[in-house]
Amino acid sequence: MITLKGIPSTYNKDLQEDKEMLFYTYDMLYQMFYIAEKALVTLQINREICKDALTPNMLATDMAYYLVTKGKNNADNYSLMQTTILNF
After folding, report:
1. Assuming Cys at both sites, which of 11, 30, 51, 63 could form a disulfide with 7, CB separation 3.0 to 4.6 Å?
2. pLDDT(78) > 90
């Protein structure tokens, strides 16, 4: 309120222009959370299908990143991961 004390009364209309976007954002977030709630309540995770879908090569990027942080070059990483995945 202190900030508004020195502003002429004609500026009050200008200060309300941002409220329209705020209300629009609130409405959109409310709708998104409403839909997300409906989706998550009915969500059922089949652990067996998830386990079957998990393959060793899915983690190859993580392994490569880890090896790069340890100072290995990409050529060494490729051959190491290829050997690891093929022997898994």
Report:
1. 11
2. no
